[in-house]
Amino acid sequence: MAVNACYNRRVAEAPRVVVLGAGFAGLHAVRRLARASVPTLWMDRRNYHAFLPLCYQVATAGLEPQEIAYPTRSILRRLPSVDFRLTEIASAQPRERLLVTTDGDRIAYDYLIVATGGCAQDFGIPGVRDATFGLYDVEDARRLRNHLLRVLERAVVTDDPDARAALLTFVIVGGGPTGVETAGALAEFRRHVLPRDYRRLRNATMRIVLVEAGPDLLPPFAPRLRARARHDLEATFHVEVRTDTRVSAVTAGGVTFAGGEHLPTPTVIWAAGIQASTLAARLGLPTGRSGRLRVDATLRVVGEERVFAAGDVALVDGVDVPQLAQGAIQGGWHAATNVLRARDGVPLLPFRYRNKGIMATIGRSRAVATIAGWNLVGWLAWCCWLAVHLVMLVGFRNRLVVFVNWVWNYATYDRGLRAILGASPPVETPPAAQTKTGSVP
Amino acid sequence: MAVNACYNRRVAEAPRVVVLGAGFAGLHAVRRLARASVPTLWMDRRNYHAFLPLCYQVATAGLEPQEIAYPTRSILRRLPSVDFRLTEIASAQPRERLLVTTDGDRIAYDYLIVATGGCAQDFGIPGVRDATFGLYDVEDARRLRNHLLRVLERAVVTDDPDARAALLTFVIVGGGPTGVETAGALAEFRRHVLPRDYRRLRNATMRIVLVEAGPDLLPPFAPRLRARARHDLEATFHVEVRTDTRVSAVTAGGVTFAGGEHLPTPTVIWAAGIQASTLAARLGLPTGRSGRLRVDATLRVVGEERVFAAGDVALVDGVDVPQLAQGAIQGGWHAATNVLRARDGVPLLPFRYRNKGIMATIGRSRAVATIAGWNLVGWLAWCCWLAVHLVMLVGFRNRLVVFVNWVWNYATYDRGLRAILGASPPVETPPAAQTKTGSVP
Question: Which of A386, A417, B200, B336 could share a disulfide with B32, CB 3.0–4.6 Å?
């Protein structure tokens, strides 16, 4: 309790807002509150805001984790009314307006904004939680990079052709932008890095399989762009695209499709959608589809007076908010605006999503984008993609170093950030023994 | 056995050299052998060559681990006669000229160069292995950085003044270049980053204590430089320097000095010297002081015909080789030269260490250096330090990004790489409860 005194002292002074989550929604909620000089406590279990759309580049050794992670405390330099606390929330007592941290501290709030994001959607498919690699977190990306590099090292010393074929099979599940971008980045790694740095694998076949349950890749894009993306992936990058294909199970030894076919591989990358993080349920607030918090059109949680939610964790009643950075940015800002209006006793405003465009990159000089109603492909779309992503990064140093790395990667065709760093959980050791027992259909 | 066949095939063709270790000694041995086009197998338990003199900057959030780690496979692009294998060695059978990996594979060699480096020297002091942080490995540096950042986050929410004082006490043991550079970097962090990013700690006292068992810091330097370094540390950077002070025990709760004084702190950084890694003993070769392999003046292991050793792992008979990058670089090159001479039946050459100079940086624009007999201090020494370290980095991309980061850090006084990344071993959680029970003497 003593630890928490410094936070509770403030409650007497002015209504205090607590923002949970340092993603796009949390960041923009905090910025909105800081502009109104509202005493705000920002909390996250990580000490940084991460730019998740570039996770796939971290996973494929093109960028460093630190380059897409910006310390929350550095953001607060210009926001004097905001304080940050690194902690995890164990539970909540909405009636008493209290949060309980995993350390046992109790944090009081007058208004709460929940922006805790999501994790991979498993659709109840066995093995997804334990045997796949995600891309919804910088730690996920780091873990996937280490796994990919270890798999290649294992393949180098494996003479058994079946085991080597399994090790060199990379399956990506999910045909949205994350899946498409990851497949493209792996294909570029295969084309440019493998022949130079893994000479023993020069004549081996590395398979990249992109699996989508629906009939087409990149569903929100116009048909012309979808066709172009698929053509680029298949004809130029030699990615095996399998649409209308459902996954029925994943194990450490491979992936099984709904038709019964089994593909032996230690690497299944899961990019099939997002569900709310487990925290949403622990807060004791009403949840809907995919465990997301049910919020009304003003982003207030259903049945709560002082709790709002935004970003991937929120399921907005009657508004279709895509689970993209833009949805979270606009939602976080709007939730904070409505907190200010609730404090002032002014009627809340309904949230309206403004679609600023969608884009997905496939590889060097290849992307698709829809911006302000214009459909772009190829080099122009790719330049737009680069510019938008550079501008959205927080912190000038990060922008500079990402830019240097992109220029470097473009000029040299290299992916140089390949040191395996960090403790390795057991899942990272590819199960060569198991893959041997699998059979290629 | 099957896995290993691809390596053993070569044995029939030409004498094959195995080099263990990807540090400075291993790297330069491999480069020497590649110049003579000798079939070489290079092995390490990491997949990168690390530039360890800059570990302290990684630990203090000034550089990224990847910037001082260069993938071994990228080095091999220009060395076609060399192959790399990521593995750990379990044991050796010198009579059969075989190494056994932890996977159970047996690797045959005609000549072996051991360059497996060292780890922190514990002098038998209890607690050093488990309760201190080292700087002899990129993983060490990453772990220390995460620990420092967590300690600060803990201090922010701690109201108990004794516990906070303990959390904000940083003890560095060892007054050589590593200890001096770490103390200086921590002092700069305290001066420039703490007031901006940890506003609650603005009026708290962060203590930095540099402990040296001998009578003076930086023993190999000239007296004038030693005095200057000590003056800079004490007067400019407010580091508490304690010479003639021995540590008798370290626990997770603090450090105890020989006189009985106890200093409560969760952070003891151990930079008091190097002993050979445990691998040296496992190889079944003769070891001497600090577990290092005993080698004669030609760098051949005593009693062995085809085994050489260089770098921190080697204890050279009759030659005083300092445990610095230069000693390892020259030793690795020389060991490889003598392997070539042994192969050709030519008499081996004795190793002579050429002292190219020594340098240590204290902080921005402050360093001491002795180069070619010239003693330099201040700005000039600091520029030399920067230039030498940039040039010694492997890989142009690393040089470029390190340079960008240095310019950035210098211009902004910032240390921006403060995202806590990677799985956290239990030791990283500062033992606040234990520090409370300790008493400041």
Answer: B336
Secondary structure (DSSP) of A95-135:
TTTEEEETTS-EEE-SEEEE---EEE--TT-TTHHHH-B--
CB < 8 Å from B in window 25-84 of A? 46-48, 50, 64-66, 69-71, 73-74, 76-77, 83
**To which residue do tokens 């995600």 refer?**
A134
Q: Give residue-wise pLDDT tens across range A326-380.
A: 999 999 999 999 999 999 999 999 999 999 899 999 998 899 999 988 999 999 9
Quick one: pLDDT band at residue A14, thresholds 50, 70, 90?
A: low
Match 């992503």 to its residue by tokens.
Answer: A389
Reading the block at residue B157, the tokens are 């929410």
Which among A64, A67, A181, A212 is annotated as catalytic?
A: A181
The verdict on B401 touching A (C-beta cutoff 8 Å) is yes
Query: What is the per-residue pLDDT for A432?
Result: 38
- Hey, where are the domains in chain B? 2-45+87-120+274-344, 128-272+357-437
Q: At what angle are helices B378-392 and B396-412 packed, to 10 degrees?
A: 150
Residues of B in contact with A50 (CB under 8 A): 419
Helix and strand counts by DSSP (H, E) for chain A: 15, 24
Of B371, B279, B73, nearest to A153 by C-alpha is B73
Contacting residues of A for B150, CB less than 8 Å apart: 86
CA distances from A424 to A142, A146, A415, B55, B257 (A): 10, 8, 21, 21, 36
CB A363 within 8 A of CB A184: yes
Facing B422 at nearest CB: one of A64, A419, A423: A423
List chain B residues with CB under 8 Å of A59.
none
Asked if residues B197 and A76 have their Cβ atoms less than 8 Å apart, the reply is yes
To the query of whether residue A212 is one of the catalytic residues in this protein, the response is no
- Fold observed for domain B128-272+357-437: FAD/NAD(P)-binding domain (3.50.50)
Structure tokens at A39: 């005493």
Whether A128-272+357-437 and A2-45+87-120+274-344 are alike in CATH topology: the answer is: yes
Tell me the C-alpha to C-alpha distance, in Å, between residue B29 and each of B25, B322, B376.
Answer: 6, 18, 32
**CA B418 → CA A15, A67, A197, distances in Å?**
31, 11, 31
Q: Rounded CA gap, A378 and A368, in Å?
A: 7
Q: Tell me the pLDDT tens digit for each residue of B276-320.
A: 888 888 888 999 988 899 999 999 999 999 999 999 999 998 888
- Subunit contact A404:B401, Cβ cutoff 8 A: yes
Contact B22, B116 (CB under 8 A): no
What's the rounded Cα separation, in Å, for the pair A176 and A272? 7
Is A4 near chain B, with CB under 8 Å? yes
* Residue B113 vs residues B29, B306, B311: alpha-carbon distances, Å: 8, 9, 10
* Distance separating alpha carbons of residues B231 and B74, to the nearest angstrom: 43
How deeply is B238 buried, as exposed, middle or buried, from its count of CB atoms within 10 A (0-12, 13-18, 19+)? middle
Which of the given ranges, A5-14, A207-216, A387-396, A421-430, has the highest pLDDT on average? A207-216
CATH of region B2-45+87-120+274-344: 3.50.50.60
Dihedral of alpha carbons B12, B13, B18, B22, sign: negative
Of A5, A50, A418, the CB nearest to B71: A418
Task: Work out the angle at residue A51's Cα, subtended by the Cα atoms of residues A45 and A57, and round it to the nearest 5 degrees.
Answer: 120
Per-residue confidence (pLDDT) for residue A415, from 0 to 100: 84
Q: What is the complex's ipTM, to 2 decimals?
A: 0.87
At B178, list the tokens. 């590593």
Query: Above 50 in pLDDT, residue B233?
Result: yes
CA distance B196 to A177: 38
C-alpha pair distances (Å), A193 with each of A4, A206, B185: 51, 12, 36
